[in-house]
Design a protein that fits this description.
- The chain has about 375 residues and is α+β, with helices and mostly antiparallel strands.
- It has four helices and 19 strands.
- The strands form three sheets. Strands 13, 14, 15, 16, 17, 18 and 19 form a seven-stranded antiparallel sheet that branches. Strands 1, 2, 3, 4, 5 and 6 form a six-stranded antiparallel sheet that branches. Strands 7, 8, 9, 10, 11 and 12 form a six-stranded antiparallel sheet that branches.
- A hairpin with a 5-residue loop joins strand 17 and strand 18.
- The protein folds into three domains: about 80 residues, Immunoglobulin-like (Sandwich), CATH 2.60.40; about 90 residues, Immunoglobulins (Immunoglobulin-like, Sandwich); about 100 residues, Immunoglobulin-like.
- The chain is about 15% helix and about 50% strand.
C-alpha cells in the first residue's frame, strides 16, 4: 500500500510540474520534502558497528567505522580543553557520499593532544545515527631531521644546512677515510648549543680531495638525540685533476736474483688518489703513444704513492710514467722519465783479474792467445 501511494504521488508530481508555474511547483516540492522528512523520523537510523577505530600520527587522526546500510560519514571533533558535553568545535567528513564503510581523516591536530569525537551517519531519506562520545590522543612530537643540503665552497670548506621538526642543538662529526677505511680516531666535531629548527654549520678545516663520513646530529630540549649519517662526503668539488710532484726512483738488485733489477718509484699528489705506473724497455720515441707495460691499479687512495717495478734487466734503458686518479675519476699523468738500470755487480774473481790486467799487461796478452 505504501509503495502504491508513493508511485501515485510521483505521478501527481509529474503532472503538476507540467501544468503549474515553476515557483508554485517549488513550494509543493518543499512541502512534500518536509512531510517526508517528518515521516522518516520514525524510521531507525543506520546501525553503527561498535566503537570506531582510530589511527593517529602527530598531527592527524583517521576514524574508521561501518554501518548496516548506506549513509554518509561525518565526525564532530573538539580538543579536550574546549570540549563541553555534547558540544563539539567543528565537523569534518563527506556529507554526500553514501557507503557502508566510512573513513574520515582529521588534519591539523596538535601533537600530544587529547580530542573528543563523535561519528555521525545519515541516509538519503534523512534517517541518522550518532555514536557516543569517544576520545583519542595524537602522538607526541619526536625529533627528526627532515632534510639536509651540502654546499662545497672549496677543497677545504663546506656549508651544511638541515631542518628538524622540533628545535634541537646542532652537531657535525667528521670521520676521514684513509686508504679506503674510516678512521674514528681522527674524528673532528663542530657544535652549536643554541636550540633551533633551522641549522647551519660551516666546516672550514677539511682536507682537499678527501672523503669523510659525516654525522648530522642534535639534541632536543627534552634530551632526545637525533642523528643522520652521510656515509661518504667528498671535498672534491673542484674540477682539477690531481697534481703530481716529487717523482723519485731507487734502483737495486732484486733479492736472490743476481741478474734482476727492481725499481722503486715514489711520488706525491695534492689530493688523495690512486697509484699506477706505465713503463717499457727503451726510450719512448713518441710521447703521445702509451707505454706498453702497466702495473696493477692501487685503489688505496692516498697522497703519497709507491710502486715497485721488479724483474728489470741490468744495464738497460727504461721509460716510465706515473698516473693517479681521484675519487671523481679525474686522472693525471706525469711526463715520461728515462732511467738506465745498473749493470750486474762483478764477482770478486772478476775484480782481482782486472787489477792484475792493469798491473801486468802480459795477462791480457796471454788471454788473447
Amino acid at each position: 500500500m505504501l509503495q502504491k501511494a508513493l508511485e501515485q504521488s510521483r505521478d501527481l508530481a509529474r503532472q503538476l510540474a507540467e501544468s503549474m508555474p515553476a515557483v508554485d511547483f517549488k513550494k509543493v516540492l518543499l512541502a512534500q520534502h518536509q512531510t517526508l522528512k517528518e515521516a522518516a523520523q520514525g524510521i531507525p537510523g543506520p546501525v553503527l558497528s561498535g566503537e570506531p577505530k582510530v589511527s593517529v600520527t602527530e598531527t592527524t587522526a583517521t576514524v574508521d567505522w561501518s554501518t548496516n546500510e548506506e549513509s554518509n560519514a561525518m565526525v564532530a571533533v573538539s580538543a579536550a580543553t574546549d570540549y563541553q558535553e555534547g558540544s563539539y568545535s567543528y565537523e569534518v567528513g563527506d556529507p554526500d557520499t553514501q557507503t557502508i564503510d566510512h573513513s574520515v581523516k582529521i588534519v591539523g591536530l596538535t601533537p600530544g593532544e587529547t580530542y573528543h569525537y563523535q561519528v555521525k551517519s545519515q541516509t538519503l531519506i534523512g534517517t541518522a545515527t550518532s555514536s557516543h562520545d569517544f576520545t583519542f590522543t595524537t602522538l607526541s612530537m619526536h625529533p627528526r631531521i627532515d632534510n639536509y643540503t651540502v654546499n662545497v665552497t672549496s677543497g677545504q670548506s663546506a656549508v651544511f644546512r638541515w631542518q628538524t621538526n622540533v628545535e634541537t642543538t646542532s652537531r657535525l662529526t667528521f670521520i676521514p677515510y684513509r686508504d679506503g677505511e674510516p678512521q674514528p680516531g681522527e674524528a673532528s666535531v663542530i657544535t652549536s648549543d643554541g636550540l633551533t629548527s633551522t641549522h647551519q654549520i660551516t666546516a672550514d678545516s677539511l682536507e682537499p680531495g678527501s672523503v669523510y663520513s659525516v654525522e648530522i646530529a642534535g639534541k632536543s630540549a627534552g634530551g632526545t638525540d637525533i642523528s643522520q649519517i652521510i656515509p661518504t662526503f667528498s671535498t672534491t668539488e673542484e674540477t682539477l685533476a690531481p697534481e703530481i710532484s716529487h717523482v723519485k726512483t731507487d734502483i737495486a738488485l732484486s733479492p736472490g736474483k743476481e741478474n734482476a733489477i727492481q725499481m722503486v718509484i715514489t711520488w706525491d699528489t695534492d689530493k688523495r688518489s690512486t697509484s699506477r705506473v706505465r713503463y717499457q724497455k727503451g726510450v719512448a720515441a713518441d710521447p703521445t703513444v702509451p707505454l706498453t707495460e702497466i702495473t696493477p691499479l692501487e685503489n688505496a687512495f692516498g697522497k703519497s704513492h709507491t710502486v715497485i717495478l721488479a724483474g728489470l734487466e741490468p744495464g738497460t734503458v727504461y721509460s716510465f710514467q706515473v698516473e693517479s686518479v681521484d675519487y671523481e675519476g679525474r686522472a693525471a699523468a706525469s711526463k715520461i722519465f728515462t732511467v738506465l738500470t745498473p749493470r750486474q755487480q762483478e764477482s770478486i774473481f772478476q775484480v782481482i783479474t782486472k787489477e792484475f790486467e792493469a798491473t801486468f799487461g802480459w795477462m791480457s796478452t796471454l788471454r788473447g792467445k
